[in-house]
Automatic annotation (TrEMBL), chains A, B:
Highest taxon, organism lineage: Bacteria
Domain annotation Glycosyl-hydrolase 97 catalytic: ranges: 285-472
Keyword Signal: yes
Record keywords, A-Z: Signal
InterPro entries: Aldolase_TIM, GH, GH-type_carb-bd, GH97_C, GH97_catalytic, GH97_N, Glycosyl_hydrolase_97
Domain (Glycosyl-hydrolase 97 C-terminal oligomerisation) ranges: 568-674
Residues passing through the membrane, by range: none
Name under which the protein is recorded: Alpha-glucosidase
Amino acid sequence: MRYSLLLLAMAASLPLQAKTLSLKSPNGEIELRVSDDDAPHYAVLFHGKPVIGASKLGFDFTNAANFRGGFDITDSQRATVDSSWEQPWGEARIIEDKHNELVVSFTHPDSKQAYKVRFRAFDDGVGFRYEVNANTPLNIGRELTEFAIEDADKAEAWWIPGRGWNRYEYLYQHSKLADAALVQTPFTLKNKDGVHIAIHEAALVDYAAMTLNQRRPGTFVAELTPWSDGVAVKTNGTFNTPWRTLHIAPNATGLINSHLILNLNEPNQLGDVSWVEPGKYVGIWWGMHINKNTWGSGSQHGATTAETKKYLRFAADNGFDGVLVEGWNIGWDGDWFHNGDLFSFTKPFADFDIKAIADYGREVGARLIGHHETSGSVSNYRKQWDGAFSLYQKMGVAQVKTGYVADGGNIKRIDENGLERFEWHDGQFMVGEYLDNVKTAAKYQISINTHEPIKDTGLRRTYPNWLAREGARGQEYNAWGNPPNPPEHIAMLSFTRMLAGPMDFTPGIFDMSFNGLGDNTNRPQSTLAKQLALYVVLYSPIQMAADLPENYLKRPDAFQFIKDVPTDWEQSIALDGAVGDFVVMARKERKARQYSGNDWYLGAVTDENARDVTVKLDFLEPGKTFEAQIYQDGKDAEWKWRPYEMDIKKQTVRKGDTLSLHLAEGGGAAVRLKAL
Amino acid sequence: MRYSLLLLAMAASLPLQAKTLSLKSPNGEIELRVSDDDAPHYAVLFHGKPVIGASKLGFDFTNAANFRGGFDITDSQRATVDSSWEQPWGEARIIEDKHNELVVSFTHPDSKQAYKVRFRAFDDGVGFRYEVNANTPLNIGRELTEFAIEDADKAEAWWIPGRGWNRYEYLYQHSKLADAALVQTPFTLKNKDGVHIAIHEAALVDYAAMTLNQRRPGTFVAELTPWSDGVAVKTNGTFNTPWRTLHIAPNATGLINSHLILNLNEPNQLGDVSWVEPGKYVGIWWGMHINKNTWGSGSQHGATTAETKKYLRFAADNGFDGVLVEGWNIGWDGDWFHNGDLFSFTKPFADFDIKAIADYGREVGARLIGHHETSGSVSNYRKQWDGAFSLYQKMGVAQVKTGYVADGGNIKRIDENGLERFEWHDGQFMVGEYLDNVKTAAKYQISINTHEPIKDTGLRRTYPNWLAREGARGQEYNAWGNPPNPPEHIAMLSFTRMLAGPMDFTPGIFDMSFNGLGDNTNRPQSTLAKQLALYVVLYSPIQMAADLPENYLKRPDAFQFIKDVPTDWEQSIALDGAVGDFVVMARKERKARQYSGNDWYLGAVTDENARDVTVKLDFLEPGKTFEAQIYQDGKDAEWKWRPYEMDIKKQTVRKGDTLSLHLAEGGGAAVRLKAL
């Protein structure tokens, strides 16, 4: 008896043998391995070859012992899910969620501290999150999650800087992986076998955003954006981190043809969201960016009652749902950039009769779209936002564009002691502030389009009134950016920023020459056809026709495409493309036309190189005939001097046919496949 | 009466008018302007032209109101200093300190918070530091000091990344200023008028190191390296920051011909430092880097009694003062890189008889140089260091090389609760730890040569036993670096790293072919003559002859220069050069030779381009004759395949003569001007 007790005692004191657990995707092509050998870590294989090497897990806390080495795998649980769910609006209606799950418990043999990591393997990628249940508040100093890229010295990447003054508004760099130091997510890379990987996160709630810092060559470590007091994340001890996600695909388009981010988000918490309406809009906006109008009062004031009524008329006449009006409220006349406290969110300028406008809108059938520019003074906004949303609700406003124009790290809040604190747009504080704004708006049945936002991590699933956001260099940079967005920009965004979620890019500029044509002025570095293609290539439930109405009236032929194209989709397919080079998208409209069924749309864009793309129409429904209405660059078109030359042709097509599309330098093509 | 009281009352409540104060350098060429208009800021002009535009001052605290806008200049005081002082050792004996000083008091009219900024303008640059006297502890979250470079879009810069895993050990980048995102200091830039500026700091004590982050284009903001809990600097409320320094010169050599950093440091606090001895050394070190020996025990163990005695003999025979021995102590046999706790600083390996070695050294007249590698486990070192220094003192060791090999952010300390905390090499914690190490060593009359150090900020003035440090990519990278240091590296260091203080580069590799010649292997990318030039070009009070003794014995002709060259100087002059291209240094030995006077030495190095330099010997004393012993690249020499071809010639020279030196690709020249 004693002898066996002794043996038992000895066994209990021996260190547990290192364990490795395996989790495969439903189709078996992706494998996750999780191990506690030396320190908790994971690795990922694709078709049996490592793509992510041994990558550590863990945290350094500021007020407790760290989760570093020494933790053992003490338990694991598995699950398999094969389901689908329906979006109230989106790039697709039905989303399939098929994954295998592994929840691993790590425990420290001495301190008994424990945490879990939940891993999910999908056919299009993996995600994992930490789940901590401590009985004491834990402040995270540093998250230790690594992404160790295999064969890093042969990989290339597309990225923007991780903690810049200009937030997410940078041109994407294409470089050897080695040259990416501190980067934002989504972070896209391609290894020597052509495997494309994008690192991002899903369900960023009550936590700091993750950027990635290349520490040892090829190993990227999570770098959390800190509070003004330096702490990364403040928790009460019981928390789940956001999901750390890896899109994994054998080619570029596979990154786009994925619902990884949405599938890792919580279901809709708002209940009935029939009041959330995708649509198209115009607005008193571009005129200010090209210096025709001012936000502030004066003879060039854009946001006047008369002008807004003109826009509402134009919107109604042309099938647009709303008119965004910027510069309507008190505050624009001062030094608002340095002092957002000047803004009132309830008091209009004297020449903006919001009630008359609301009445007129109701009369003609187009709504005012609201605008709340905070200039980073978020406490000033928060204390007014209930009143502001209430006012808008009374005025029939169903959608608000918010703004947080301020340098990175310069969001101003007033703390509990009445002192000013300066935070990052993507620190834990603002992550909460943006979401509170959306939740508050929902109480008033108002949807939100956030500019200068937190990155998209799929929360539109949980809060479907969070329609869209900016979070990249949009059309405005073509008005005054130094430099404007180059021709490759859209093909860059498609495989990086757009993997996160919809973008309010505000496409559709028809007049490229407000500063003169050529390649040395501020203007969209694009052809006219490419501007049309954007409505299909860049997904957003709300799309602006961004130019001045007069420019659309000058080109009714091109404008027709904008009038036709929907913004809500049954299905979307990335057909072809390469990161930063070109992309071809196909989308099926969600709302079936009576008697004929659903149209399809194609959009194709290229970079500074002309390109001829062949689109095989094998995604069309068999037995149906479509009229392809093709808007493509003229044979001599190119973006610098001849952007307007566009051919519009029609042809009948069926499933299996091929369309050849010519894309000029900086060009594109847009096609409506009208169901007959 | 009432009326005037009313006026008085009104005046008192009116905001103070914006003030601007001016401070000029003694020769009037540099002007500092300090203003409280909008927010406290400064600017710098050179020859009447702005070089630094309006640059903010201030702090964000985590536990008090910020020092941002709204502070007024409420007082100022001026002083003029014209003095000189003597270094116990250095690149020059007599240092002139001529400056004008302005101390500005800033006060907030409402909160009454106040702080001072002390500005000093020298002919070779400016420095300023904050002086805070609050009666409550203040934790700094962010320092707001800016350096706004005028005409930034036309400027170029030379830099290394500011917070990399490899600390300071990066190749210098040369780029447009716009492409420098987060950088270390010294940070060197050149504007369109050829004005060279280097941003750095002096007297970094009890504070976090400053890196620079380019926020708005052209504006660099101080970015302090944080503690593991995220706070940048913890103070008791009464503190001076380090001096923020700007070397300003009309050309590249002007940056080197400056004592700005030393002049801003406090005088010697150690008293009699006659026990601090500059000199030259050899060591059991390179053999491990080229894989001939091991640090750990075994048949190739470098640090044996027999081998050390051989080196001591060689050192004594050739005029070297000491022998560095690495791998002498218990700890090297385990996984020391991941666990520095394995190191004992008092227990030698069995095959290293430290007493026998000490006795032998005393016998032949050369000392053992100690080695304390911590591998970043600083608590393990601290608890042993008194015993370790005491042992060394008994063994006649007068100098110790310390090491902190660990990735940036991975210095491990044990906190007051017994928990592991991971800190940066250049956070406030380690700034204190490195200095405590030096102060402790002084108690045992031991000097310190710190590897993987905190950057040099001139504290050798205050603690003259802090002889040298690494803090850049040194010779070891030529053994195994990926890649090795390229030919331009020395000309880069001279105008960047070397502005901070001495570097233990460990020059003098004579055998370039241990992995084969050519340009595709690990080897010094240098000619033999350039290796000699390093002894003059890169200042250090302790210089190693880094190669294996056998390689010196094979080239007694070249070795003669190393035997002759001193390491302590009366005077140093940068004669010519351009950042990253080439540099020509002249130095006058400090110790006069009996009967003949002081020799001068010249060193010149070039990058990958061959270069012929003309040196006008107008710095020589009039009326004296010198024998120039010239060691220069042979006419067909070049670093890749013909590095060894060297011409040695002698000629008589006097003041005013000219020497023409041919520098091969990757080459150099070394000259002893022997006083006759």
